[in-house]
Design a protein that fits this description.
This protein is α+β, with helices and mostly antiparallel strands and about 160 residues long. The protein is built from five helices and eight strands, in the order H-H-E-E-H-E-E-E-E-E-E-H-H. The chain has helices at about 5-15, 25-30, 55-60, 130-140, 145-155, and strands spanning about 30-40, 45, 65-75, 80-90, 95, 100, 105-120, 120-130. The protein starts with a helix and ends with a helix.
C-alpha cells in the first residue's frame, strides 16, 4: 500500500464521521472484518456492528461535529494524526450523576489518532481524546473534595 493510499483511507474515515455527512455505515465499511476501534481514554473497544457507535455518539453530542486535521504522519501502514474535534454541544451527555442537557457550549478538543491499515482497510484505530479538556468545556468540573471525602471514609 502506498503512503497516499493509506492516508486516503484515513481521510475517508474522517469524512464519513463529519456532522454534515455522518455516514456510520460508510465508516464501518472502511474496517477489515476483524477491525477494532479503541477509544483509549474512555476504555472502550468497538468491533463488528459496533465499529460506528462512537461516530454516532459524537454526532448526537455535537451535531455539527468537525475534525480539524492539523498534521498527518504516514509510516508504512501506520497513519498518525494530530487533530481537534470541534462542534457545538447539542447533547444530551450521559454522566454517572445523570444526563447533562445541551447548553450550546463550543467545544475544541485536542486529539491524537493512530490508524493501522491492512490491505486498504483499517485494521485498528486507537483514538486518544483530550477528555479533561472536553469535560471542562462542557462545564463539568471534577469533584476532588468528594473524592477525598469518600477515600477518607473508606479508609476509616
Amino acid at each position: 500500500m502506498t503512503t497516499s493510499a493509506a492516508e486516503a483511507v484515513v481521510r475517508a474515515a474522517y469524512h464519513a464521521a463529519e456532522g454534515t455527512v455522518l455516514d456510520v455505515e460508510g465508516f464501518k465499511n472502511l474496517f477489515t472484518e476483524d477491525g477494532v476501534f479503541n477509544n483509549v481514554v474512555g476504555g472502550e473497544v468497538y468491533r463488528g456492528e459496533h465499529l460506528g457507535d462512537q461516530v454516532a455518539v459524537m454526532g448526537q453530542l455535537l451535531p455539527d461535529v468537525h475534525r480539524e486535521l492539523h498534521r498527518f504522519h504516514v509510516t508504512g501502514d501506520l497513519v498518525t494524526v494530530e487533530l481537534t474535534i470541534e462542534g457545538t454541544f447539542g447533547g444530551p451527555f450521559p454522566t454517572p450523576a445523570g444526563v447533562l442537557p445541551p447548553n450550546g457550549a463550543k467545544l475544541s478538543i485536542p486529539t491524537a489518532d493512530f490508524w493501522y491499515i491492512e490491505d486498504g482497510k483499517i485494521k485498528e484505530f486507537n483514538c486518544y481524546v483530550g477528555m479533561s479538556v472536553m469535560l471542562a468545556q462542557l462545564g463539568i468540573q471534577p469533584n476532588f473534595a468528594g473524592a477525598v471525602a469518600a477515600a477518607t471514609t473508606e479508609a476509616s
